[in-house]
Write a structure and sequence with these properties.
The protein is an all-alpha fold and 413 residues long. It has helices spanning 5-20, 22-26, 32-39, 41-58, 104-138, 143-174, 190-199, 213-260, 295-319, 321-348, 351-389, 406-410, and strands at 73-75, 82-84. 65% of the residues lie in helices and 1% in strands.
Length: 413
Amino acid sequence: MFGDVGHGIFMLIFALILIIKEKQLGSQKLNEIIAMPFGGRYVLFLMALFAIYAGFIYNECFSLPMDIFGTTWSQANETSGLMPDLSRTYPFGIDPAWKGAPNELDFYNSFKMKLSIIFGITQMSVGIFISFANAMAMKRPHSLVNIWFNVVPQIMFLWSIFGYMCFLIFYKWYIDWPHLPPPIPNPPFILPLIINMFLQPSTPPDPLMFPGQHSLHYFLVLVALAAIIIMLPVKLGVLKYLHNKQHQHIGHGKQHDEHSGSGSAPPSPAVGHHHHDHDDFDDEALDVSHGDLEFGEVAIHQVIHVIEFILGAISNTASYLRLWALSLAHSELSTVFWDRLVAGPVKDGSVPMIFVFWSVWFAGTFAVLLVMESLSAFLHALRLHWVEFQNKFYVGDGVKFTPFDYKKILNPD
């Protein structure tokens, strides 16, 4: 979602109107133009809240900065440049002095790109924790196998690389690099540092961001490799052991039936009978309770799953950069609209033209920034939820997916 307090408030008002008039509009037959936003009124409400929140972080309201807490930059005289007050920082969001600065675009690009990565890693981590909750809720015989040999190593792998990247982002924001002893005028770029951590592990970062960073790199690389080993050979070995143990149990059961004369008895759930309500579902298709299971298929499936997760951890993280692109495009369009349609006529001093261009600005803001941009942001956010987020825990492999619905909760019959 874009970040602008003014545009977010407009969208919030529209979403609240749809929610307040929910019963009245729901009893009528609406045309497609109204029916579509009405069906997504709660999504619009949440999008509006996040647009306001991100707008306070970016410190933008209709592309204009908001000096809420007082800027930390000041100008000694008319000929000198702006100088920061090093005794304090801006409490929340970006200092309004950055708006209009010569390096504004470079600064906002870097900030929004890092913030998109932080949002992405946070959401993907939540998705992995939901897979843990799924494994606990299903109560399958091999839930603990999926927890210890799937969920835990996935968290290990994700956090050892991208969690460390988020830590470096916050650390780089926190440290006042030019005033360190010794000063570091140009702190290292994070992305090359992460790449070199794997491609050149023996080469220490130059300069070091903190003591012991090179040793930490060795440790994190080992953690990532250990996570891959746990998900592949270790998990396959455990599944093979459980598979063989299950076969032995079935064999002993058959011998007992032959001696007792009850060979015609139907198999019990303990020897591999699948219940279609729960046991058919397995998020990794690794239920080894089947007596006729081909273990080679299990191994191939697990190898594919691990490769998809490793490559997906990289591609999914990069996919969240679309948040940066959407926010940047929205901010630049909003700035152009304001500068050309409002600021320009105000500087010229023509009162009639101010009203004319203000009307054009409002119409353009509504049509382009609130309708088209919101639709674009909604589609991109929907894709991030469906692909990057849900692939961490949802697999359509047996239990029918039932989306959250107030009607089913209030009227279970």
